[in-house]
Write a structure and sequence with these properties.
Rossmann fold; Arc Repressor Mutant, subunit A; five-stranded parallel beta sheet; two-stranded antiparallel sheet; 48 helices; 4% strand; disordered N terminus; DNA binding; ATP-dependent transcriptional regulator
Length: 910
């Protein structure tokens, strides 16, 4: 109780006046069945050992729905639970108290009649005395009492907060209060948390996760969208439930999700109306004005907001907006930098564009000037472009270009540089080199070469006036252009001598030299040399300094580890770099486009299909624009194979054809060959031998001048893909003997080059061909080392693929196999495939199954009943039933026996 606000005397007419509205004592009626959320219901169950639970989030996050489900859950198990909905008329102590008392009245059978006689007779007394009597009445209650108060954000009256604070401070063990609100109630939450008396559920927990989004859309739409589009929609809405619901009403979302999602990204009318009516309209005018002015900013702090709005209340405004959960997220632990939810920001920008009284260009100009003053050049350029103004003053172009290049914002760099006047002045050489660098990363190779040729001529005339690092940068940018154009020998000839020049006095140029030389070695399958080169490049003191160079360094090192079969090292290298980069650049930058596809292939190999969507779905546009060759093909091969597993081969072919179109435009023959081989694999799996043969003819034409041991890395890769694909066709048409010889050569070549990942997969395919040709003993010998390495690196997808083709060998008695543990890992009947596909790398449990669901399956395996499982896990039998329903759906079974069969298969892979 706040002593500065003593409790006021109770009025004489406590319950006189208008009658109580009975509908406030029941949850609002909801249409149809609601999506159950066991993870949150279980969290709410823990309030039985605490005094207070607070469910706090912005509008549309499902607070009321969750509380209504929990109320039904408690009632179904005989618990005493009351509901109270509030509105603006209750924002005063005296209207509020009768509702509070009336809600509690039915929960307890042991009330002293005199207490209610005094209340009903409106006997004058003090509020503190009334609350003390209420607490004493409930002190000896033999059972738990739960009071749910929803929409508490309408309460601003200090007296109500003080009354509830007093009640919580002295509450008997039987009383449990649960509050749903859009902003934090003014109660002693920190003290309750320190006493372990608080259950705190915020917007992060309330957001839909992937599984909840999938179930919601599956129940809502017919036909439901695939996992890929579900993830795109989830990323776009950031799990905001109201946004997901509104999007699900978009025409055609179920059948053709592309256009509605694109439309949603621009802000649908329904989203705009919802935000206007529910979020914007109730706001004070000065708050909405602040939101409108600052919506131009991708990130902001109080000082920047003051500069843009021309006000001096930025800190207070941000504090108010954060307290009221207005779709704002902190970007750092200190709570200095923030951003708005993308849909809220998009709606605000639409309003800003319609408001003729506001000059958007002027707002951007103010933002640009602030970023210039802070020497945050990349953001200064972005806002300067939006304002149609130059960046700051003279002499800042070089710093701005460097900042954009280091950040990897290629799109802005190209757009901005093309607004600058063309000049071959030696003093602007660095600017022109940055543009050539950006054009190469934009795969506009001819434009980059033309600019570099002009700069070569300029260097010839002014060599004595140029810094050494500038001359080296000119050469390394040309090497980058040729490397990305798949002219690897030409690139190597340029860049290998430059390693002797490191360090050259410019750490960014040093990074470019090391990275492109490593990249060339990587494409040439010289993995040890690729990693060795990186030892020449010093790590930056600040992780955000030379961000783009750091991202590419980690990409190359992760690629080298992955090709050598070291999945853990590759994953750690790429994941850390991705998290670090996207904290600064967001999910749609070139950093994510470079690193996410590699992580997606690792996830796909390890059976984590949900992670594939999570990594790629929201980054596809950036991947199409910025991904280097290997990242592009890893992305679309992972997505296509996932589509095949989901039973949508047409989608798999569409994805591969799209990637093939991009590779053809950029003249990447190595990627074109791999994608053709992958399309042939899809056709063969569909038993379309005619279509596979037609594509094989195209691939043979592409490889007509190449051999599998060609010294030219691109030609060698093309020949290897053509040979592998040819072997698959031979096996599909009953000619495995022809395949055995060539697959053996491919295995030998890949193992000689230490490409262990490719070698493992080829060995397993070779073993299949050997068994098909009548040589099971040889197949066993061939497969044995591949099985060992695959098991060690958790290559579940490769094992599953082998499990279908090597089934007779893998089903031999264990004592007849060379390595029982490793063979047992692959010896999984085909009917177990659906469950095993979801295995995660950490503990062998299925990704699709939650930890609690896995625990339930273990207890079922021990023969426990639903009630026994409920006691073991400290949950209700109804929650156990819900878990079992989810388990059956995820494992594609209909009863316990079938679930146990699948679960045994999963344990084999553990």
């Amino acid at each position: 109780m706040n002593r500065s606000h003593p409790m006021r005397p109770l009025p004489m007419h406590l319950t006189q006046g208008l009658p109580l509205i009975l509908t406030k004592f029941a949850p609002p009626r909801s249409p149809g069945d609601l999506l159950q959320r066991p993870r949150l219901l279980e969290q709410l169950d823990t309030v039985a050992q605490r005094r207070l639970a607070v469910i706090c989030a912005g509008a549309g996050f499902g607070k009321t729905t969750l509380l209504a489900q929990w109320q039904q859950h408690l009632s179904a198990h005989g618990s005493r639970v009351a509901w109270l909905s509030l509105d603006e008329d209750d924002d005063s102590l005296w209207p509020f108290l009768p509702y509070l008392l009336q809600a509690l009245r039915p929960l307890h059978d042991g009330w002293d009649p005199d207490f209610w006689h005094r209340v009903d007779a409106q006997t004058p007394t003090s509020l503190q005395l009334l609350l003390a009597e209420l607490i004493n009445q409930l002190h000896d209650c033999p059972h738990d009492l739960y009071l749910i108060i929803d929409d508490f954000h309408v309460i601003s009256d200090r007296g109500i907060h003080d009354a509830l604070g007093y009640l919580l401070a002295h509450a008997p063990p039987s009383l449990h209060l649960v509050i749903g609100s859009r902003h934090r109630p003014r109660l002693a939450l920190s003290r309750l948390q320190a006493q372990d008396q608080l259950v705190d559920i915020g917007d992060a927990a309330l957001r839909f996760n992937v599984e909840e989004a999938r179930r919601y859309l599956h129940d809502t739409l017919s036909p439901p969208p695939g996992g890929h589009d579900t993830q795109r929609l989830l990323s776009l809405t950031e799990g905001w439930i109201a946004g997901m619901k509104i999007a699900s009403l978009s025409p055609g979302l179920g059948g053709h999700p592309g256009p509605p999602l694109h439309q949603l990204q621009g802000g649908t009318r329904a989203i705009s109306r919802y935000l206007t009516e529910v979020v914007f309209d109730p706001l004070p005018a000065e708050v909405f004005d602040f939101l409108l002015h600052t919506s131009i900013l991708r990130r902001f702090n109080a000082d920047l907001c003051n500069a843009v709005t021309g006000r001096d209340d930025g800190e207070a405004m941000l504090e108010w907006i954060e307290q009221h959960n207005l779709f704002i997220s902190a970007l750092d632990e200190q709570g200095v930098w923030f951003r708005y939810h993308p849909l809220l920001r998009e709606t605000l920008i639409q309003r800003l564009r319609r408001d003729r009284g506001l000059d958007i260009k002027q707002l951007n100009e103010r933002a640009s000037q602030w970023f210039v003053e802070q020497r945050l050049w990349a953001e200064a350029v972005r806002h300067a472009l939006a304002a149609g103004k130059p960046v700051g003053g003279n002499g800042q172009d070089g710093a701005s270009a460097r900042s954009l290049a280091e950040e990897g914002d290629i799109d802005t760099l190209v757009r901005w540089m093309q607004t600058l006047p063309v000049s071959l002045d030696p003093s602007r050489m660095d600017l022109q080199l940055n543009l050539a660098w950006a054009l190469a990363h934009y795969f506009r190779f001819d434009e980059s070469r033309q600019l570099l040729d002009s700069l070569d001529a300029l260097v010839a005339d002014h060599r004595d006036h140029l810094h050494r690092s500038t001359r080296i940068k000119l050469q390394v940018v040309r090497a980058i252009c040729e490397a990305f154009a798949e002219n690897i020998p030409e690139s190597l000839a340029i860049v290998e001598p430059l390693l002797q020049e490191v360090p050259c006095g410019d750490v960014w140029v040093d990074g470019l030299v090391c990275n492109i030389l490593s990249y060339d070695y990587l494409v040439d399958q010289r993995y040890a040399e690729a990693l060795a080169v990186q030892r020449h490049m010093p790590s930056p003191e600040d992780p955000l300094h030379n961000l783009f160079v750091t991202v590419y360094r980690n990409f190359i090192m992760a690629e080298a580890h992955l090709c050598q079969g070291e999945l853990d090292e590759a994953s750690q290298q790429a994941r850390q770099a991705l998290l670090q980069a996207e904290r600064h650049t967001g999910p749609h930058s070139s950093s994510g486009a470079t690193l996410a596809p590699l992580l997606a292939e690792i996830a796909s190999e390890r059976g984590e299909d949900g992670q594939v969507d999570l990594l790629l779905a929201d980054r596809l546009e950036a991947i199409d624009r910025y991904s280097p060759p290997d990242a592009l093909r890893r992305c679309y091969v992972s997505l296509a194979r996932k589509a095949l597993r989901e039973g949508t081969p047409q989608q798999a072919e569409h994805l591969l054809e799209h990637a093939q179109h991009l590779a053809t435009l950029r003249q990447w023959p190595r990627v074109m060959a791999l994608l053709l081989a992958e399309q042939i694999r899809v056709r063969l799996q569909r038993d379309d031998l005619t279509g596979a043969s037609q594509l094989q003819q195209q691939l043979e034409h592409l490889a007509s001048q190449a051999s599998i041991d060609d010294p030219h890395p691109v030609q060698r890769a093309i020949a290897q893909h053509a040979t592998l694909s040819r072997c698959r066709v031979w096996m599909a048409t009953g000619q495995p003997d022809l395949a055995v010889e060539w697959l053996a050569r491919l295995v030998s070549e890949q193992e000689r080059r230490h490409d262990r990942l490719a070698a493992i997969r080829l060995r397993l395919l070779l073993a299949s061909a050997q068994r098909q040709s009548g040589h099971p003993e040889q197949a066993e010998i061939t497969a044995h080392p591949a099985l060992q390495l695959a098991r060690h690196q958790q290559l579940r997808r490769s094992l599953l693929d082998a499990g279908q083709t090597l089934q007779p060998q893998l089903e031999q008695p264990q004592d007849a196999l060379p390595s029982p543990n490793h063979v047992k890992a692959a010896a999984v009947p085909h009917r177990e495939t659906i469950a095993i596909e979801a295995m995660s790398p950490a503990d062998g449990s299925p990704l699709g199954l939650s930890e609690r669901e896995s625990q339930a399956l273990d207890l079922i395996a021990e023969g426990q009943s639903n009630k026994e499982i409920a006691r073991s896990l400290n949950i209700s039998p109804e929650t156990v039933k819900w878990h079992l329903k989810n388990i059956y759906g995820k494992l594609n079974v209909s009863n316990r026996t079938q679930a146990m069969s699948r679960w045994r298969g999963l344990r084999w892979l553990r």
